[in-house]
Amino acid sequence: MGKAAITKEEGKEVALVEVFITNIQSAVQAERILNPLEKNFPELKINFDLNETELPYPCGHSILRVEGNTINSESIVSTLNQSGFKCDILEDKVCS
């Protein structure tokens, strides 16, 4: 499992958050992959940010944000890969 941040609210644990980069370029593609993600991971809150798609992947990418009590990062990456998309856990990286 990848590194996931713990969101805290007044000192108590609320949820894990994992952020991925993908090569999903449009809302149509995001909707297409949301169906299997929501089916396979119904307990997770899943959303996309499609604002950074100008440059080639990985510097140009969309963001997949996943929130929940347990996040299996490898299974999420595998689900996107099996659907024909690239997906990686977001790392600290400077793109030029």
Large-scale geometry: globular
N- to C-terminal distance = 29 Å
Helix content: 25-40%
Could you tell me the radius of gyration in angstroms? 13 Å
Q: Can you put this structure into words, describing what you see?
A:
There is one protein chain. By secondary structure, the protein is of the alpha+beta class. The chain has a domain at 1-10 and 45-91. The chain contains two helices and five strands, in the order ββαββαβ. The chain has helices spanning 27-40, 73-82, and strands at 5-9, 12-22, 45-52, 61-68, 87-89. Strands 1, 2, 3, 4 and 5 form a five-stranded antiparallel β-sheet that branches. The longest helix is centred in the middle third of the chain and has 14 residues, at 27-40. The radius of gyration is 13 Å and the shape is globular. It starts with a strand and ends in a 7-residue tail after the last strand. Mean pLDDT is 83; it is low at 1-7.
